[in-house]
Amino acid sequence: MTFTILLDYIGTFAFAISGIRMASAKKFDWFGAYVVGLVTAVGGGTIRDLLLGLTPFWMLQPSYLIITALALLTVIVFGKHLIKINTTMFIFDAIGLGLFTVVGYEKSLAVGFPFWVNVIMGTLTGAAGGILRDTLINEVPLIFRKDIYAIACIIGGMIFFGCQFANLHNATSEVITASSVILIRILAVRCHISLPTLKGEENDDENEPKLPIT
Amino acid sequence: MTFTILLDYIGTFAFAISGIRMASAKKFDWFGAYVVGLVTAVGGGTIRDLLLGLTPFWMLQPSYLIITALALLTVIVFGKHLIKINTTMFIFDAIGLGLFTVVGYEKSLAVGFPFWVNVIMGTLTGAAGGILRDTLINEVPLIFRKDIYAIACIIGGMIFFGCQFANLHNATSEVITASSVILIRILAVRCHISLPTLKGEENDDENEPKLPIT
Amino acid sequence: MTFTILLDYIGTFAFAISGIRMASAKKFDWFGAYVVGLVTAVGGGTIRDLLLGLTPFWMLQPSYLIITALALLTVIVFGKHLIKINTTMFIFDAIGLGLFTVVGYEKSLAVGFPFWVNVIMGTLTGAAGGILRDTLINEVPLIFRKDIYAIACIIGGMIFFGCQFANLHNATSEVITASSVILIRILAVRCHISLPTLKGEENDDENEPKLPIT
């Protein structure tokens, strides 16, 4: 249990760093950077909890706010040097993705939703924070265009369901699911695996599918 | 009842297609397009359910996720050819708008809110999905600048209230309201009716009304 | 009590005007301007109420919708002349900020949350409407880059907590807190006090901290 919490905090830290560094690229002040970091770290879980009708998890204990503050401090103090440990940050981020997916799945399961809702909640927990981050810094969400990210969560959710179906012990299911998500994410980036892209239509400077009836 | 569900599904399909086609214009991958399509189709109803304190409707049965998947498949397979049936899609979209407005109004009414909250909930159900879609693809929401869209929902909500006030049978009220919204939407586009635009102020490169006290 | 309500309405009006004027700079139609004005005025409180599990305050009585309509009417009628009373609008906005912070803090306190959640809820009530406004008009949120705004709410929240800790009468705490927020906000703008900015990293055209493992 303590180990899970440690990994959860590491994931939170990595997500917060990702948000703060993007805010930094946009020349945000410390407050703006903190907010973007926090939203990246807890935004997905917050949407999940609101959809499930629960009190958002970060309102129940202040750890997540403190971890985000540490992440901000880290970026302020170490700044440039963080680029050199990008691979480390990427591994942390992948670990966070795996852990967050499991947490989201289980919270949804506990409320009593069917497996497909649990898969969505796991995916939201892992991936929605990044979408909110990109919306706040006024960019098109990265995960809509670039390699496998949320898909790793979706596959992980299905694996979790399979483990439960096979009556595996809960801790075993968690480890298998989180490991799968982390592995898929790392393999996807290392092997440049990505989803097909939709081709833009020719006449879309109109940018509006609802044409007038003429 | 079955007929209403069919129309609801058609509306969902049309809304999802609209989101997926805009995602396509931005070169999103299949996952990104699916998310944008889903948010366009169920986003308005989700905001409504959260405001009303209800479990979001699409978490109670998987139809809406499946319909969005069908919409994605349709765009992948037929792509370019969809442009040729723009008028058909526009009619579907208008039908969705009318139906969604009625559904939103009734859900809010069932919780016991006064008529003006019901009108807002009907309008949110019909129009908020498109606003979320435009935020996700990083565009200024279309309905804030172009012809009558949400206004059709607002007028529809008032008509629904009028029907109830006149003690009309519920099914009758629904048909009248949905038809009105559809008709207003189609007429507005056909006759190029739109709301007046606010003129931008001259000194607004500042883009900030709060000037320092000097 | 009546005086507090009056100040709350004045704050709502000022916030709505700020949203409508920014929508005007983007050439929105009347409906779009109304929505942006409303979101600016009630958005922060709505997020707060959703996080606290309460029914959003503006759904319980129509005053806030009516005040936003008056704000829209004011911009339509007086338009250009509003620029001349920018200082007045700034004072109104600062008053709104102070009042909204107190309201948010107290609502959260009444639900039984610890002081740090109350501080966040006060800050969200005062500052989140402006972030939603900037997201809707597709701009980077102003308060992430420019002078002291949300920080005034945070300091105010801590002062409120200090007042309670010192067993001050509730009305006294409210007056002290709101006055502090207003004063900090005005002093920050007058003396050009702002937070340090994060320096953008050199290699961030990549705009993505998760680099591939090579």
- Cα separation of the termini of chain A: 65 Å
Helix- and strand-based class of chain A? mainly alpha
Low-confidence stretches of chain A: 202-214
Largest interface, C-beta within 8 A: A-B, 37 and 48 residues
Helix share of residues of chain A? 55-70%
SSE series of chain A? HHHHHHH
Approximate strand percentage of chain A: under 5%
What does the overall shape of chain A look like?
A: globular
Radius of gyration of chain A: 18 Å
How many separate helices of chain A? Answer: 7
Total number of strands of chain A:
0
Oligomer: homotrimer
Biggest sheet descriptor of chain A? none
Average pLDDT for all residues of chain A? 87
Secondary structure topology:
3 copies of one chain form a homotrimer.
Chain A: H1 2-25, H2 30-52, H3 63-78, H4 86-111, H5 115-136, H6 150-165, H7 170-190
Helix pairs in contact in A: 1-2, 1-3, 1-4, 2-3, 2-4, 2-5, 4-5, 4-6, 4-7, 5-6, 6-7
Describe the structure.
The structure is a homotrimer of 214-residue chains. The longest helix of chain A has 26 residues, at 86-111. The radius of gyration of chain A is 18 Å and the shape is globular. Chain A is mainly alpha-helical. In chain A, helix 1 crosses helix 3, helix 4 crosses helix 5 and helix 6 runs antiparallel to helix 7 (170-190). Helix content of chain A is 69%, strand content 0%. Chain A has helices spanning 2-25, 30-52, 63-78, 86-111, 115-136, 150-165, 170-190. Chains in contact: A-B, A-C, B-C. At the A-B interface, helix 5 of A face helix 1, helix 2, helix 3, helix 4 and helix 7 of B.
